[in-house]
Amino acid sequence: MTRQEAEATLARDYPPNDCPALTAQHNAWGQARPLAGLTVLDATPLFRNTLVKHLALQAAGAEVWVGYGRAMPFDPIAAEMTPVLRLKIPDAARLAQGFDVVLDCAAAFSDIPARLGYAELTRSGIAGYRTIAKSKPVFNVDGSRIKTFETALGTGDGLIRGLRHFGINDLHGKTAVVFGCGKVGRGILFRLAHEGAHCFVVDPARPLPPQDVTLANDPDALLRRADLIVTATGIKDAAASHAPAILASHAILANMGVEDEFGPTIPADRVLNAKAPLNFVLTDPTRMRYIDPTMALHNLVALRLAQTDFAPGLFLPDPADESAILASLPKSLVDELTAFETAQQGASHV
Ligand SMILES: NC(=O)c1ccc[n+]([C@@H]2O[C@H](COP(=O)([O-])OP(=O)(O)OC[C@H]3O[C@@H](n4cnc5c(N)ncnc54)[C@H](O)[C@@H]3O)[C@@H](O)[C@H]2O)c1
């Protein structure tokens, strides 16, 4: 495959209306080349749609190095496309030399020197950057409003597409129980409620659940009659103490967390995708529509690090940069975000 063919394949699979923020960035940066001469290590989980993010950085003139395989899953087909697109894969010696900017995920490359600073995509990764932030600027992209598109709406959508992949299409009137009422769990609950499911959440922290969702007081009784059970806590074995009730149910089981949240008593073949995050069975675990704004914001932070001499510390992306990206998105997507945010205000406990 030539570079031209690879670019044509990506343009076909991810047309501009699917990634308006990255397209606008690519076009503007291709003219101005604001990252010319800089090296950027990008550790965004490597899937085919991530390559569109890399190409925007490349259009800006950056020498783009792709970090993968340390903490997060990756798509081998996307990895095979990197050399064709003149994206570079660093070996240990090149990593040790460092880069101008590190765009990280899950703090996988926090040990790599970054002359201008870092931008981290995940909340858990930020914990790995607290010490580094004493000597370098670190941007917390997870703390942005825009990240909600990916973490909440994108994972909710990824769950539904994953279920469809296994032939589960109709959730109307079904009883769904979700473990975990964090960002991901809330996105899943929002989407399940939209699909017409009766939604319940189990979370020992007893947060205020979203609209149309009930916080379960007696999880085992509920689990026994559930049609769908989803884990999204980020905690290994989170549902393990409920294994007897889960195994007694006829429910479809799906894990959306990185760890095995169902625990050792529940066999892998009882859980869709053998306990791996359900949406990772798909070519694009998160649809481009939902990941485009986050990837554009992550890239934009590289530009801000290049333009401004930031003091060491932990920073949130500039709200003006978030607004500019939001302005490039279709109204339907921004409306979806607003509806999700509104739904977070309702609550009921039983
Ligand atoms: N599949 C994907 O595409 C995808 C995308 C992003 C994140 N994730 C993963 O989703 C997981 C959750 O992420 P998050 O950002 O929502 O985390 P979070 O910390 O915001 O929320 C987790 C919630 O789970 C609750 N919880 C903890 N232990 C529990 C238990 N035993 N039972 C029930 N609830 C419990 C916590 O009280 C908290 O409210 C992580 O593993 C994350 O890596 C997956």
**Major sheet summary line:** 6 strands, parallel
Strand order of the largest sheet: 2-1-3-4-5-11
Net shape: globular
CATH superfamily of the largest domain: Adenosylhomocysteinase-like
Cα-atom radius of gyration: 21 Å
Span between termini:
58 Å
Q: How much is the average pLDDT? A: 96
Helicity range: 25-40%
CATH level-3 fold name of the largest domain: Rossmann fold
- Helices, by number, come to 13
Order of helices and strands: HHEHEHHEEHEHEHEEHEHEHEHH
* Helix/strand structural class: alpha/beta
Number of strands: 11
What binds here, in terms of ligands, is: nicotinamide-adenine-dinucleotide
Q: Which CATH top level class of the largest domain fits?
A: Alpha Beta
Q: Please indicate the percent range of residues in DSSP E strands (runs of 2 or more).
A: 5-15%
Quick structural gist:
The chain has helices spanning 3-13, 20-32, 50-59, 76-84, 92-97, 123-127, 147-165, 183-194, 219-224, 243-248, 288-307, 319-327, 331-343; strands at 39-42, 63-66, 99-104, 114-120, 137-140, 175-179, 198-202, 213-215, 228-231, 252-255, 313-315.
